[in-house]
Specification:
The chain is an alpha+beta fold and 432 residues long. Helix content is 34%, strand content 10%. The chain has a seven-stranded antiparallel β-sheet with strand order 4-3-2-1-7-6-5, with helices on one face. The protein is globular. The protein starts with a helix and ends in a 55-residue tail after the last helix.
């Protein structure tokens, strides 16, 4: 079930998710006919496990469910019989010990519709362990995969990091927004962060990330660009990841900042796999495509061709989106969705334009040496964002008047003076 939910993102209404879980239950019973008597029993246990995980680890007002209550709630639910108590207790202890997550992301939605369980909302990313199944290693936050053996180390050096937004674009808490220095290693599609003073094992080769590094950050489908709007520190660049995390990094010099931007964009352009289609449901809401974390194995020429196709597709979609403007007196939700989709399409167009430009220079340089490519092509920056509109004057030919010096009284016309006039209602005039 965990493998199934890692490959398929469940979104939408309760009936749609329950229908998909019904297909999973029938397939599971077909492949394991001796485990449970019917697909309905598998479906009941699947929904119960997902609800239990939310009850134990999700926000709640009362106390958590106990093992005996979990077993009692499932009494007689296996086609009129009881599930084995040892299996239910083992599942309960496993979920209570470690929260079940899939891909480092959660989706909160209504329950599976079983009236016997009132545990609150369901997290479709939650999954259960069947008896005898070993738990897989958790993925790092952001859905970053493990670095495959033999991955290229693109760069290493000292960077100061500041977190602006966490997964799904949520603003980072105040205590996590400070600047922190790290020894940073870009290997494959992962950024490793080693705190100052952390020892490194002597038996490891120089390109191996340290064992006590902080959580790695995936750069697949990411975009690094100069942080032009941040003026408090010099040599700062901005990084936005596939799961909408936003971070700022400060490099020691201008040259190192440009090198980090170019190499992060190069690693993302070479190793980002094509996105999956967005989730489909009855709700007509904008949904982002699913960006796979698995690195691409295509050659640079094929990656360049795929990014060009996506760039043209995004540009066409943005053109159609800007043509179909929402009604001025429309609902606030429709206006907000229009704005969110427009910002997403503008960002995606800028990201694919950067990928295409980086891969063109990489292919033309021979696609062999990073230092030679960087020296030959120079720092490849992302296309600049459209400038903000400046305040216009009523007469463009006239320059704006300068402010008068301090201490000088300004003589105003009578029409510019503000007066206070007492307003008397008509019905009360006869009382005066």
């Amino acid at each position: 079930m965990e493998t199934f939910l890692q490959a398929l993102v469940l979104t939408g209404e309760t009936q749609e998710r329950e229908r998909i879980l019904g297909h999973f239950s029938r397939r599971f019973h077909h492949c394991n006919p001796g485990a449970f008597p019917s697909p309905d029993a598998v479906h009941t246990l699947t929904c119960a496990i997902m609800l239990l995980n939310t009850d134990l680890h999700g926000p709640r007002l009362g106390r958590a469910m106990t093992s005996s209550e979990f077993v009692a709630n499932l009494s007689g639910m296996m086609d009129g019989q009881d599930f084995p108590k040892e299996m239910l207790k083992a599942l309960y202890n496993s979920i209570r010990t470690e929260k079940l997550e899939v891909g480092g992301r959660e989706y909160r939605g209504p329950g599976c519709g079983n009236p016997k369980f009132g545990f609150g909302d369901v997290t479709p990313g939650d999954a259960a362990l069947t008896p005898g199944m070993k738990r897989r290693r958790r993925r790092s936050p952001g859905g970053a995969p493990r670095t495959p053996d033999g991955a290229t180390t693109y760069r290493r050096g000292w960077l100061a990091r500041k977190v602006l937004a966490e997964a799904d674009g949520k603003k980072a808490p105040w205590g996590r927004r400070g600047w922190k220095p790290f020894q940073t290693v870009l290997k494959g599609t992962l950024l490793y962060f080693l705190k100052a003073g952390t020892p490194r094992r002597g038996s490891e080769p120089p390109g191996t990330p340290p064992a006590e590094a902080e959580e790695p950050l995936g750069v697949h489908h990411a975009l690094a660009e100069r942080a032009s709007k941040y003026t408090k520190r010099p040599h700062v660049f901005r990084l936005q990841t596939a799961d909408q995390r936003v971070l700022l990094f400060q490099a020691p010099s201008e040259e190192e900042m440009s090198s980090w931007i170019s190499r992060i964009n190069l690693a993302a352009a070479l190793l980002s796999s094509p996105p999956f289609p967005a989730a489909v449901g009855s709700q007509r809401r904008f949904a982002r495509p699913i960006l796979p974390a698995a690195p691409s194995r295509s050659p640079p020429e094929e990656q360049h061709r795929a990014h060009e196709e996506w760039m043209e597709r995004v540009a066409q979609e943005l053109f159609e989106h800007q043509r179909n403007l929402p009604e001025k007196r429309g609902r606030a939700r429709d206006l907000d969705e229009y704005r969110v989709k427009k910002e997403y399409l503008l960002y995606e167009r800028r990201r694919y334009e950067t990928y295409v430009q980086v891969l063109e220079t990489w292919i033309n340089s021979g696609a062999q040496d990073l230092e030679g490519w960087e020296a030959q092509a120079g720092a490849v920056a992302a296309p600049p964002e459209p400038p903000n509109l400046t305040k216009a004057h009523s007469s463009p030919s006239l320059a704006p008047e300068s402010a008068p010096p301090a201490g000088v009284r300004v003589k105003r016309n009578i029409s510019e003076r503000r007066t206070v006039r007492k307003v008397i209602p008509k019905r009360n005039k006869n009382l005066l």
